[in-house]
C-alpha cells in the first residue's frame, strides 16, 4: 500500500524551514527518505526503524511515530541545494519498499 | 565499484519491438526491485524479487517480465513496446526484514518508444 505524502509541492526562500509528512494505513516497520534531483537517481537521506526513533544530520532530521504510522522530514534553514523531489518509502516487516508520490521542494534565493 | 549498475542508460526504440534492461548489484542484498518513473515523477514499484522469488507484482501488463538468473541480477524484459512505456526505469536493491537497509538505486534507464 502506497504511503501518502503531503504537501505535494512547496516553495521556500533560502533560510526558511519546511516539513514533509508521510503516512500509511498499514503498520510500518521502517520509513525511508530519499531526495531526487532532476535527471538523477534517488539518493538516500535516512532510515527510521520501528521504535519511534528520530534521526538527523546537518539541518535535515526526521521522526517516526509508529502508533500514528506517520513520519515527518524536517528541513531547517533550507539551502538552494535542498531543491528536489523528496520521497518517503515504507515497508512492513519483510514487504518490499513502496514509495509515496513525492513532494517537490523548490528553494529560491 | 558501482553498487547497483543497470544498462543501458538510454534506450530509443520503435513501437512493437522487444527490449531488455539489465541490472546487477554487488551488495549481497536479498531483494531487488524495478521501479517505473513517468513524466509526473511518481516512483511506481513494478516488481520485487526476494531470493529469486517474485513477491510483489503490481498491475503491470504481462508484456513486462522480470528475469532473475541469480540473487545479484534482476533483468527486465519488455515485449511489444508501446508509446506509454516511455519512462525512466530504475533498478534498486535492499535488505528487508532483520537488518533492514536503505535501497540503493541504479542510474536509471531512460526508455523512449517512438
Structural class of chain B: mainly beta
* Average predicted local confidence, pLDDT of chain B: 90
Per DSSP, the total helix count of chain A is 0
Largest protein-protein interface: A-B, 26 and 25 residues
Element order of chain A: H for helix, E for strand? EEEEEEEEEEE
Total DSSP helices of chain B = 0
Instruction: Please summarize the sheet with the most strands of chain B.
Output: 7 strands, mixed
Reported by name, the CATH topology of chain A is Immunoglobulin-like
Measured between the Cα atoms of the first and last residue of chain A, the distance is 37 Å
Overall outline of chain B? globular
CATH superfamily of chain A: Immunoglobulins
Cα end-to-end separation of chain B: 34 Å
Gyration radius from CA atoms of chain B, angstroms:
13 Å
| Share of residues in strands of chain A | over 45%
Q: State the domain count of chain A.
A: 1
Number-wise, the strands of chain A total 11
Structural class by sheet pairing and helices of chain A: mainly beta
Portion in helices of chain A: under 10%
Helix content of chain B: under 10%
Describe this protein's structure.
The complex is a heterodimer of chains A (109) and B (114). Chain A is globular. Chain A is mostly beta strands. Chain A has a single domain (4-108), classed as Immunoglobulin-like (Sandwich), CATH 2.60.40. The model of chain A has no long low-confidence stretch (mean pLDDT 89). Chain A has no helices and eleven strands. Chain B is an all-beta fold. Chain B has a single domain (4-113), classed as Sandwich (Immunoglobulin-like), CATH 2.60.40. Chain B has no helices and eleven strands. In chain B, the strands form two sheets. In chain B, strands 2, 4, 5, 6, 9, 10 and 11 form a seven-stranded mixed sheet that branches. The mean pLDDT of chain B is 90. At the A-B interface, strand 4, strand 5, strand 9 and strand 10 of A face strand 4, strand 5, strand 9 and strand 10 of B.
Amino acid at each position: 500500500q502506497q504511503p501518502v505524502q503531503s504537501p505535494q509541492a512547496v516553495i521556500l526562500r533560502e533560510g526558511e524551514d519546511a516539513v514533509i509528512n508521510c503516512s500509511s494505513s498499514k503498520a510500518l516497520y521502517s520509513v525511508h527518505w530519499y531526495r531526487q534531483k532532476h535527471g538523477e537517481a534517488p539518493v538516500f537521506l535516512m532510515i527510521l526503524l520501528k521504535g519511534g526513533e528520530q534521526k538527523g544530520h546537518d539541518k535535515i532530521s526526521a521522526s517516526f511515530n509508529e502508533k500514528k504510522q506517520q513520519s515527518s522530514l524536517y528541513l531547517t534553514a533550507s539551502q538552494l541545494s535542498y531543491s528536489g523531489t523528496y520521497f518517503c518509502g515504507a515497508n512492513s516487516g519483510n514487504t518490499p519498499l513502496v514509495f509515496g508520490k513525492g513532494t517537490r521542494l523548490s528553494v529560491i534565493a | 565499484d558501482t553498487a547497483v549498475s543497470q544498462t543501458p542508460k538510454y534506450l530509443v526504440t520503435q513501437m512493437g519491438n522487444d527490449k531488455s534492461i539489465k541490472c546487477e548489484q554487488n551488495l549481497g542484498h536479498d531483494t531487488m526491485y524495478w521501479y517505473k518513473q513517468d513524466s509526473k515523477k511518481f516512483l511506481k514499484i513494478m516488481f520485487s524479487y526476494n531470493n529469486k522469488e517474485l513477491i510483489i507484482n503490481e498491475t503491470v501488463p504481462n508484456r513486462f517480465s522480470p528475469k532473475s538468473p541469480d540473487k545479484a541480477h534482476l533483468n527486465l524484459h519488455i515485449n511489444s513496446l508501446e508509446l506509454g512505456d516511455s519512462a525512466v526505469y530504475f533498478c534498486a536493491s535492499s535488505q528487508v526484514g532483520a537488518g533492514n537497509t536503505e535501497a540503493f538505486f541504479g542510474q536509471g534507464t531512460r526508455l523512449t518508444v517512438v
